[in-house]
Design a protein that fits this description.
This protein has 494 residues and is α+β, with helices and mostly antiparallel strands. It is 52% helix and 15% strand. The chain is built from eight helices and 15 strands. It has a six-stranded antiparallel beta sheet with strand order 7-6-11-3-12-13, with no helix packed on it. β9 and β10 form a beta hairpin. α2 packs antiparallel against α7 and α3 packs antiparallel against α6. The longest helix has 79 residues. The protein is rod-shaped and about 160 Å long. The two termini are 22 Å apart. The mean pLDDT is 88.
Length: 494
């Protein structure tokens, strides 16, 4: 085959172009420090690069989620530990108060201190927020745990689950003599106050609506049972603490105090059952009382607009953050699962007992004043008043014993509440530890992915320089060879 100058020229230019391409490839690789400049240079490297970059972007987002979750959980832990610390202090205070003797000023100090503890737990810790979002309110992070002002325009129908084991024996003072100008000493003697016992459980609110609630439970066979209690208002009492004395088969609901009182006979039936719950209504809420929707299944009916809202499953409102591939973590703690309402209720009960004692002491002072004003020769009147004084003093002594007992039971309430907080803290801590381990794993995974990404994309500068030098030598050699070949043609010999 005849080889012409044109063929040699074309082949030389083609080879020069190939060498220039190789030369340019290593030049770009060396100057950019990347193996490829565009996906078409090496599709395999390009696909891997996309995969590594996507993985790194996901890891960065997971780490950001973990940082946000860590801040939320740190604040939650601080509040829960604070509640636990206050409950420990309250136990010491209850122990000290239960072993003391009290005058009127002492009782006022007890109530004041207990209410300060209560305010700190509920208003400072339970109602805590982080960046404008409330920590213990489940999904409704924009709604405070407590009412921010008095509320009178919405009626809540609350379904509260109770533990049958919390129906406790309760000792109280029943009866007592009251002044009547027509009564004799014998009359007063027959009206003496006495200790009695009943079976009682307290719901989470006092000052409920004067509406008959519904009580349901499962008996020992598992069958559903319904009780319709008698609404027994304190204001209707004709005898001191009459609202605590149902007949054997009766159940009293006391709206002012939020007590459910079981007669002896029906208590024996209920105590062997389970799944006790009370459905009741409450319209009047004071500032800083707990919003029912954060603790109970309830229906809120707006009296002004007629609108009803159903609130369900407050204890299951978990806020989950994605902290790894196909892995989520619940970062919040629900208030109803951590902070018990019995703390507030026990303090309210002790306050009521102290108020009763104050009233009895006022009665005693009134009788003493009557004795001072009574004529010395009116022996019958003096005898009646002295007997009345004796009966009131007895009643006062018994009521102070009730106060001491309730201060003692406050220790148990605090211990139970602290156990609940500690369980919540343990659950919180286990989730926090899991998150920390996940963060550590993500950091390692991020480093490994960065290395793999670098191995895939980044050029080896040593190899790139060697390749560049070789391509340069080859290109120069091609130029020299082409120059020699094309420098002369057949025309030079003709």
């Amino acid at each position: 085959m005849r080889v012409t100058n044109s063929m040699m020229r074309n082949n030389s230019l083609m080879n020069m172009q190939k060498n220039k391409n190789v030369y340019n490839k290593y030049l770009q690789e060396y100057s950019s420090q990347k193996k490829i400049q565009r996906p078409s240079d090496d599709p395999t490297i390009a696909v891997r690069a996309l995969k590594y970059r996507t993985t790194l972007a996901d890891i960065e987002q997971f780490l950001k989620n973990i940082d946000d979750a860590t801040s939320w959980m740190n604040q939650t832990e601080t509040s829960l530990k604070d509640v636990s610390s206050i409950l420990t202090t309250m136990q010491d205070y209850y122990t000290q108060a239960a072993t003391g003797t009290y005058g009127s000023s002492d009782r006022e100090k007890i109530i004041t201190q207990l209410k300060e503890y209560q305010k700190y737990i509920y208003e400072q810790d339970a109602n805590a927020d982080y960046s404008g979002r409330y920590l213990f309110t489940g999904y409704r992070t924009d709604l405070s745990l407590l009412f921010e002002k008095d509320q009178e325009h919405t009626t809540y129908t609350i379904t509260e689950k109770l533990d049958v084991a919390d129906i406790r024996k309760y000792q109280y003072v029943y009866g007592g003599a009251e002044y009547d100008a027509t009564k004799t000493a014998d009359d007063y003697a027959t009206e003496s106050a006495e200790f009695r016992a009943t079976h009682r459980i307290m719901i989470s609110y006092d000052n409920c609506d004067d509406v008959v609630p519904t009580i349901t439970y499962k008996d020992s066979t598992g069958a559903d049972q319904t009780i319709t209690p008698v609404v027994k208002s304190v204001s209707d009492d004709t005898v001191f603490n009459e609202h605590l004395k149902p007949d054997g088969d009766q159940v009293f609901f006391v709206p002012e105090t939020g007590e459910v009182i079981f007669g002896d006979d029906i208590y024996e039936t209920v105590r062997n059952g389970s799944d006790l719950q009370v459905e009741y209504q409450k319209t009047s809420f004071k500032t800083n009382e707990i919003r029912p929707e954060h603790y109970f299944n309830c229906v809120a009916y707006n009296i002004e607009t007629g609108e009803s809202i159903n609130y369900r499953n407050p204890e299951k409102q978990e806020m989950s953050y994605q902290i790894n591939f196909s892995q989520t973590l619940s970062v919040n703690t629900i208030g109803c699962n951590a902070i018990d309402t019995t703390i507030r209720r026990k303090i309210d009960e002790i306050t009521d007992i102290c108020n009763d004692i104050d009233n009895i002491e006022q009665e005693l002072k009134s009788v003493e004043k009557r004795l001072q004003d009574c004529p010395a020769d009116d022996e019958e009147k003096l005898s009646a008043l002295n007997e009345l004084k004796t009966q009131i003093e007895t009643k006062l002594t018994l009521e102070k014993t009730v106060l001491t007992n309730q201060l003692g039971s406050g220790i148990t309430v605090c211990q139970d509440a602290q156990s609940k907080v500690n369980v919540a803290l343990a659950n919180h801590g286990s989730r926090y530890n899991r998150m920390e381990m996940t963060k550590s794993k993500l950091k390692d995974q991020e480093l490994a992915t960065e290395e793999a990404k670098s191995d895939n994309e980044d050029a080896d500068l040593g190899e790139a320089y060697i390749g560049f030098s070789e391509a340069d030598l080859l290109y120069q050699a091609t130029l020299n060879a082409t120059n020699k070949i094309l420098g002369q043609s057949l025309l030079n010999f003709i």
